[in-house]
Structures are given as structure tokens and as C-alpha cells.
Amino acid sequence: MARGDAPRDSYHLVGISFFILGLGTLLPWNFFITAIPYFQARLVGASNSTTRILGTNHTGPEDAFNFNNWVTLLSQLPLLLFTLLNSFLYQCIPETVRILGSLLAILLLFALTAALVKVDMSPGPFFSITMASVCFINSFSAVLQGSLFGQLGTMPSTYSTLFLSGQGLAGIFAALAMLLSMASGVDAQTSALGYFITPCVGILMSIMCYLSLPHLKFARYYLANKPSQAQAQELETKAELLQSDENGIPNSPQKVALTLDLDLEKEPESEPDEPQKSGKPSVFVVFQKIWLTALCLVLVFTVTLSVFPAITAMVTSSTSPGKWSQFFNPICCFLLFNIMDWLGRSLTSYFLWPDEDSRLLPLLVCLRFLFVPLFMLCHVPQRSRLPTLFPQDAYFITFMLLFAISNGYLVSLTMCLAPRQVLPHEREVAGALMTFFLALGLSCGASLSFLFKALL
């Protein structure tokens, strides 16, 4: 809740700015994975522009570079690394440098990706340049997210919700951009160029929004606060985020650190035999309390990243070639996943089941491992080992619906349950631990995707 002497947010300009900044933080990851068919077409040595259609799958033995596996792994490893380095970086580098520098670097790297659409290049150098871009873009994105969440700690909680809403729509925005590019009617190369220019425009708008904040009286009022003055507001922000999580993308570990610090409900009284301590809580003691919830978080993301997008992006329609087969994967894989994942995360605003004392949560998490063989047995062309047991499109769509909504719900549920399992003064340590385990789960899933693809 804003303080009584605070100025008004005229025309909601600050809210719109943080919404766009949230969208911009997760555009890079989503635009790269949604364009996997384009990259695979380039990596099979396709020099003809007609083979560079965004929606055309190039899978099987000719996918010698394992692009979808590497793009997932090299997106998540920087996230894990910068999760560990956050405290050091944020103390050594000024906030403005971190945010503007990251945005400018992401913009330049995406501009390079767009320019490469028009450049004929052999597969080897193209793969190396693209993988380097993926690694650097996601490194800067990790720094950017953490820095912006630090600023949100001084703002009213509604602005954090707007930021997370922007992040939640990034995946849907990328999928819709692909569909519009494919349906535009222009040649395939121009379509791909327009697709990659779209996130450049998004990042440029994010830069403009960030530069405008110091010129808005409302933003100046909150962002100029010293950390000690902003502490109460920061706690309110974290509490609000714990109840209403609307981020639809599973790669924001900085958000977990923010949301797991404080429960929305009134802090419970300390037990008589376990008084609240003023000193720093023990990491080992906190881990003993939340280890099962943390393990569940790791397993949820391990399953998700092991098949999405590495395996799911390879699934094609079993119908005869036509419009539906061309649009099948963008709609049924990427767009459907992001919509249902966002819906699953929103469900925890209405109920939390099972609760922190139930053993059903580990069971539900382990049941998600069934999605691995289910997707591997869908209609993936040119497989060499496993048979195709679910060739019809309806199977894949059903699996994706359950896969995405369970991912969103279980991720949000574990983030809500973790602070309930520790004392109020231990929640900061619990948040840091959950941050690490979230990034660990993402990296484990990306690594396992190589094994599962090799088994096809």
C-alpha cells in the first residue's frame, strides 16, 4: 500500500513501464526456443530461403548439432551461475550499469541474430555464433532480472504484480509473434527477419521505459529511498507476491528469492521451545525443514526442461502436409504450454492443495516423470530406436495440456509452501536455498534432455 504522502502514478505510466520491463526480461529465452525449427533448418545446411520457414521441423538424424538440447542447456547454466554470483555482482556494479548494460547487450545480440537471417553461413560457424549469443543473452538476462527485482522491493506491491504479469506473457507473446510471422504471407526469409526484429523492438521499449523512470515523480519518490527506509515497503511487496504469483515462465529464480522471504499471512508466534533468534539462522537447519519441498521443485523443473523444448519441439502432426501441419508445433507446443502454465500458476491464488504437511506433493511430482516416455512415444519423425505409440495429434495435445498446467501449479505451490515450513526469521535463508534449487532443477533438466533425445 502506498504511503499517504506519495504522489500519484499519472496515467499509470510507471505501472506500464514495469509491465514492459517484465516482458523484456523473458523475451530472449522464449524467442529462441520458439524459433527452434528455423535454427534447425539453418543447421542442416539449408541455403535456400524456402527451407527457412519458422514452422518447419527439421529433426531426426540430420539434427547433428542437437540444437534444441544445447539452447536449453546454455540458457539455464548462466542462470545457475549468476544465481550463485548475485551477491558479489550486485555489490560491485552500480544498479543503473547492471540494468542498462544488460538491456543494451541483449539488444545488440538480438540484432546480430536478426542480421544473420540474411547472411549465408555454413552450419558450423552459425551454430557457434548462435550458442555464444544464447549464453551471453541469458547471462545478461539473469543479471537484469535480479537488478529489477531489487528495485521492485522499494515499490508498492501492485507494481511487482504488473512486472510478473509481463514476464508471464512473454512466452505467449513469442508464440503469437511466430504465428503472425508464418501467416504474414511474405517469403520465409523476410518472415524470419520480422520475427527476430520483434524482440529487438521489445528490448528497445524496455530501455526507453527504464530511462523514463527517473523523470516520473512517482518512480523517483520510491526509487530514491535508501534501503533502510524502503525495508517495510519491500516486505509488503514480497508478501503480496507470495499470494498472487502470475509469472508464466519457469526460469526466474530471482523471483523465488523475492517471494519466499515473507508470507502474506500474519507471522505465526514462535513456539515456546523454539524462540525466534536475532542471529543469522543456520542454513543447515533451514534446509532440514524445507528439503522435501526443495527436492520437489528440483524434480518439477527437471522433468519440464528434460522434454520441453528438446523433445516436444520435435513432435510433428500426423496429418497430411498442409496449413495445420505447418502451424501444429507453434500452437500445440509453445502457445499451448505457455497459456496452460500461466493458468496453472494462477490456480494457487484460489487454493493450495496439498498442504505443507501432506505426502501427496512428492507423489504428484514423481508422477510427472510419466510425461517423459509419453512425449518420447509421440509422433517424432525419423526416430531410430523407440516406436511411435501415440501418433494422433490428440494424444500430444492432451499430454501437453496436463504437462503445462501441472508444471505451473506445482512450481507455484512449492514456492508458496516453503515459507510456511520455517520461522519468520528463517525465510530469507529459505528463499536463497529455493533460488539455488530452482536453478539446479533447470540445469539438471537441460542436461537430461541429451540422454532422452539419444534414446529416441
From TrEMBL:
Span of the signal peptide: none
Topology in membrane: Multi-pass membrane protein
InterPro entries linked to this entry: ENT1/ENT2 (IPR034764), Eqnu_transpt (IPR002259), MFS_trans_sf (IPR036259)
Catalytic activity: thymine(out) = thymine(in); guanosine(in) = guanosine(out); hypoxanthine(out) = hypoxanthine(in); inosine(in) = inosine(out)
One Gene Ontology molecular-function label: cytidine transmembrane transporter activity
Gene3D superfamilies membership: MFS general substrate transporter like domains
Domain of life assignment: Eukaryota
GO cellular component term of the entry, any: apical plasma membrane
Keywords: Cell membrane, Glycoprotein, Membrane, Phosphoprotein, Transmembrane, Transmembrane helix, Transport
Family, similarity comment: Belongs to the SLC29A/ENT transporter (TC 2.A.57) family.
PANTHER family xrefs: EQUILIBRATIVE NUCLEOSIDE TRANSPORTER, EQUILIBRATIVE NUCLEOSIDE TRANSPORTER 2
Physiological role: Bidirectional uniporter involved in the facilitative transport of nucleosides and nucleobases, and contributes to maintaining their cellular homeostasis. Functions as a Na(+)-independent, passive transporter. Involved in the transport of nucleosides such as inosine, adenosine, uridine, thymidine, cytidine and guanosine. Also able to transport purine nucleobases (hypoxanthine, adenine, guanine) and pyrimidine nucleobases (thymine, uracil). Involved in nucleoside transport at basolateral membrane of kidney cells, allowing liver absorption of nucleoside metabolites.
Name the UniProt record assigns to this protein: Equilibrative nucleoside transporter 2
Organism, scientific name: Macaca fascicularis (Crab-eating macaque)
